[in-house]
Amino acid sequence: MPETDVDLLIRAAREAGQIATRYSGRDARRWDKPDGAGPVTEADLAVNAMLAQMLPAARPGYGWLSEETEDTAARLDHDRVFIIDPIDGTRSFAEGSRTWAHALAVADRGVVTAAAVYLPQRDLLFSASAGGGAFLNGAPIRVSAPAHLAQAHILAARPNLQPEHWTGGQVPAFHRDYRPSLAYRLALVAQGRFDGMLTLRPSWEWDIAAGELILREAGGLCTDRSGAALRFNNPKPRLDGVIAGGHTVHRGLFGALDPASAGIAAH
């Protein structure tokens, strides 16, 4: 039987973990990207090189979008495209933390259909395929369902709680937590360990694509900050923030945001 896209991504994610864990985060060579785009390490580049060889070879008709590959318009000519973050949470990796992930996805005409998020140093492998459910290390996962937003634990960076983002300057009552990897945040919400995830700053597709499907297949809702469904493989591969969680939590967060704040980016 031919290998499915999700099985291919799982195999690739595990191989990526074997490469990345050969490097010591604090000792890995590190550079700062131009224009304040953040750091990159030799581990990011080594993982990207492997994935850029392995995945297109397995699916020669798919396009390619990766944080560590110079983007071209060629991917727009493909219905299906790989969307890859070789290491999501590079700062965390470089600091020696274990909360970084490999985030791999396939999108078909803008909709993610297969995904894997792997944290090799925590032995956590989240996966999903369209219509096939979401899994952690092979076991099904499901979003939580708190009765009220006030009971919810939301993964969000502190700037998202600035009053200017919220209607009337009133930040809703919820418990705030944080993890550095956006893909891991989405996966944790899919697992039900946290109730929601929020980022109001423009977000790169490779940070979001894999986690979006995993959360959606776990019964959650994932939109941009205006409430629109997320679409991928855009000419400019950025999304207008992300609101994610079970339906009650998503409705509570979206309803409390000030629509007029859409042009204000949280950092």
From TrEMBL:
Family matches, as PROSITE patterns: IMP_2
Binding site for Mg(2+): E67, D85, I87, D88, D207
InterPro entries assigned to the protein according to its UniProt record, in alphabetical order: Inositol_monophosphatase-like, Inositol_monophosphatase_CS
Protein name, as recorded: 3'(2'),5'-bisphosphate nucleotidase CysQ
Recorded GO MF terms: inositol monophosphate 1-phosphatase activity; metal ion binding
The keyword Cell division is assigned to this record: no
Domain of life, source organism: Bacteria
Magnesium among keywords: yes
An individual GO BP term: inositol metabolic process
Entry keywords, A to Z: Magnesium, Metal-binding
Cross-referenced Pfam families: Inositol_P
Listed cofactors: Mg(2+)
Family: Belongs to the inositol monophosphatase superfamily.
Gene source species: Ruegeria pomeroyi
